[in-house]
Structure formats: structure tokens, C-alpha cells
Write a structure and sequence with these properties.
The complex is a heterodimer of chains A (292) and B (122). Chain A is mainly α. Chain A has 13 helices and no strands. In chain A, 76% of the residues lie in helices and 0% in strands. The chains are: A mainly alpha (292), B mainly alpha (122).
């Protein structure tokens, strides 16, 4: 009965179908998980075409600010296309496909589930930060951070690099000591600005997967007092104030635990917070330039 | 603009063809009382749909394999139920047409390279 040629035929057709479907699923998995890291020029072009078509629609709209942001991103097209980096493209694609990345990334995620969902949520903020970026280098920097958050790569730095880092750290501490936030008056923002510049330079230089830098930056930012926001640098816009308040609140809520558990090597979590710091600094930079 | 219009037209045609195909195959399956024939025709449908996905992802090898599989499974179903040979043959033909139409759609949209369709989210 079982060896009836018809049954055998059905069995083989089922086997063939199973093998074929399995190959197709493998192909899809590769496309959605692995090939995403090799996004090509066409993807970016399509993205930019999409933006152009959006900007056409917005020409008659009242939301000029949004239009301006899109126009600025369009300006990025030429410099970007000449030095395309697969990580950069990945991030552009990731920002476009934030939902999809969130879904596929779940499969390979090793960290806590709560952090994963937060990463998904913060993609929107990162996307907003990208809108605000004017300089290509800063954009690439942001992308590096995003990439490191997503991949969790953490290359170990050499002793010489570590030495250099500690030197910069001392400089930053010295700069920090000069600023007494509690006594900060309305006309004493120069020292605060100096600290901010110092922090900014520090971030730019050391935000690429260096644990010490990250943990220290988190600690520094935790020491910021919310009372600081009662007096503002004269050149800060309302946008910058709001961003700063939001940022500080977020950090004080989220980073307390992180610093306590720092010894638990929550490296990915720190990287994630670092990306938020970058997003904030980019926002602040943009807001300052608008204010001036 | 012409490319955009062609893309929309080809997408509509491909979707319509897909729907017609599924309806036709469901019709064939439901008409027969032979369980083995039903299983094989179901396999044929699954392979055609997977072939269309491969064509969408621009995977040449798997698309070609789907052509081959469609004919093999088509032949098997004719052997199992010769009375419905014409319908089965037409179903196989529709399968090939569906895969080809998805492939052509990608060309019309001008997506050169490989696997770009799969990267996009809806």
C-alpha cells in the first residue's frame, strides 16, 4: 500500500516542496538579516528620491521647518554618494526601516529584552537627530554610533590609545572642576560653554566603543544638576532648552541604574546611552547655530 | 513619471495575476476528491508562490529552480489525475507566468543589482 507508485510520487513531491521552501526561507533570512549590512547605492538613491518627492508635496505645506530639514538632507546627497560607506548606508536604511530592523534584530539580540524595545523606540529620536545634522562628518559619526549600538562590536584599544584617552580624561576633569554648577550665575556661562566644548570634543574623539569614556561621560552627565536649566545661556533657543531638559530628565531616570550596574559590564547598554548623548549633542549644536 | 506609471501598472497586473492564480488553484483543488492529487496541486501552488518571492528578491538560481519544480510537480499531478490534465497544465502555465511577471515587474521598476526588493520594508 505504502509502496504504491502514486504514494511514492506524492511523498517525493512533498519532499521537493519542503526542500524548495526551506531554500527560499534561507534566502529570505539572509536578505533580511545579513544582506542588510551590504546595502547599495540604489537604496540610498531610492531614499533620496523618496525625500525629493516628499519635499515636492510639502512645497505648498505650511510646515516649512520640516521642508527645510528635508532640503538639508538632500544637500547631503552629493558628499555622501562620493564616499559611501556600507555602515553609513546601513544606518540610512536602518532609519528608513526602523520597524523592520527592530524585528530582525530581535533574532540575534543577546541583551535584555527591555533594552531592545528601547532601541526600537529611540530609532525615532535618532532619525530626528539625522534631520538636524548639517555636516557630513557629524552624520558619519552618528552612524558609527548607531552601528556600534546595533552590532555591539567592541574593539579593544591599545595601551597607547588608552594612555591618550586618560590624558584627555584628566583634561576634561580639570575643565569640569572649574565649573561649579551650583554657583553658576547668568553671566557665568563662559565657563559652562568651555565645559560643553570640552565634553563635545571628548565625545567626538572617544565615543567609538571605549568603555572608560562612555562610563565617565555617563557619570559626568549624571552630575549635571537640573537646577541648571533655571538660568540659560543667552544664545540658547527654546528648542535647545526643551531638548536639554528632556535630555537631562531622561538621563537621570535611565542612567542611575546603569551607573550602579556598571561593573556588570552592561556594555551594550552604555553604548546605547552614548548614542542618546550624541543625539542630544547634535540637537544642541543645531539649536545653538540657529540661536546665533 | 513614465517609469513610475509603469511601476504602478505592473504592480497592479502582478497582484491581479497572483489573485487569479490562487483562486484558480483553489478551484482545481476543491474540484478533485483525490487527496493525493490535492496535496500535489497544493505543492505546486506553494512552489509557485515561493518562486514569485524568489523573483521578487532577484534570486536567479531559485527562480530557475522554481520553473523546474513547477514542471516536475505538474507532471506528477497529471500522472495522478489524468482527467484534469488540461486544468493542471493551465495551472502550471499560470505558475510560470506569475513568476515571470514578478521578475518583469522588477525590471520595469528599474531595480538593477540584487536583492534590493527584499531589503525594503512595506
Amino acid at each position: 500500500m505504502l509502496l504504491d507508485p502514486r504514494n511514492v510520487l506524492v511523498f517525493f513531491s512533498l519532499l521537493l516542496t519542503f526542500l524548495y521552501v526551506w531554500s527560499v526561507l534561507n534566502l529570505l533570512r539572509k536578505n533580511f538579516v545579513s544582506k542588510i549590512f551590504h546595502v547599495k547605492q540604489e537604496v540610498l538613491d531610492k531614499f533620496l528620491n523618496y525625500l525629493k518627492s516628499t519635499s515636492k508635496l510639502l512645497k505648498n505645506a505650511k510646515d516649512f521647518k520640516f521642508y527645510e530639514k528635508i532640503a538639508k538632507l538632500e544637500e547631503l546627497h552629493n558628499p555622501l554618494s562620493s564616499s559611501l560607506d556600507k555602515r553609513l548606508l546601513f544606518v540610512v536604511d536602518a532609519l528608513l526601516n526602523a520597524r523592520m530592523v527592530g524585528e530582525t534584530f530581535k533574532e540575534t539580540w543577546q541583551g535584555p529584552a527591555s533594552l531592545l524595545s528601547e532601541i526600537g523606540n529611540r530609532f525615532n529620536d535618532l532619525q530626528k537627530a539625522v534631520w538636524n545634522v548639517k555636516e557630513n562628518e557629524v552624520f558619519i559619526d552618528l552612524c558609527e554610533i548607531c552601528y556600534s549600538v546595533i552590532t555591539g562590536e567592541s574593539p579593544r584599544h591599545s595601551p597607547s590609545v588608552r594612555h591618550e584617552f586618560l590624558g584627555d580624561l584628566r583634561e576634561l576633569r580639570r575643565c569640569l572642576v572649574q565649573v561649579d554648577l551650583d554657583r553658576l550665575g547668568k553671566n557665568e556661562w563662559e565657563s559652562f560653554s568651555k565645559l560643553e566644548d570640552c565634553l563635545w570634543n571628548f565625545f567626538c574623539k572617544w565615543s567609538e566603543n571605549h568603555e572608560d569614556a562612555i562610563s565617565f561621560s555617563v557619570a559626568v552627565l549624571l552630575n549635571f544638576d537640573l537646577t541648571v536649566v533655571e538660568t540659560w545661556p543667552p544664545y540658547w533657543t527654546n528648542y535647545a532648552k526643551e531638548a536639554f531638559v528632556e535630555f537631562l530628565k531622561f538621563l537621570t531616570e535611565k542612567l542611575d541604574k546603569t551607573v550602579i550596574e556598571l561593573e556588570g559590564a552592561k556594555y551594550n547598554e552604555l553604548l546605547f546611552h552614548m548614542s542618546l548623548i550624541h543625539a542630544y549633542v547634535l540637537k544642541r549644536d543645531k539649536a545653538c547655530s540657529e540661536g546665533m | 513619471m513614465t517609469q513610475e506609471r509603469n511601476g504602478i501598472v505592473s504592480s497592479i497586473l502582478t497582484s491581479s495575476l497572483g489573485l487569479i492564480y490562487i483562486a484558480y488553484m483553489v478551484n482545481i483543488i476543491s474540484e478533485s476528491n483525490d487527496l493525493r492529487y490535492m496535496v500535489v496541486v497544493f505543492d505546486l501552488t506553494i512552489i509557485a508562490i515561493c518562486g514569485a518571492v524568489c523573483a521578487y528578491c532577484r534570486s536567479n538560481l531559485l527562480s530557475l529552480l522554481s520553473f523546474l519544480n513547477v514542471w516536475i510537480i505538474g507532471a506528477a499531478s497529471i500522472y495522478l489525475y489524468p482527467e484534469a490534465m488540461a486544468k493542471t497544465l493551465f495551472g502550471s502555465f499560470l505558475s510560470i507566468l506569475l513568476i515571470l511577471s514578478v521578475y518583469m515587474r522588477s525590471f520595469i521598476l528599474g531595480l538593477s543589482g540584487e536583492n534590493h526588493n527584499a531589503i525594503r520594508s512595506p
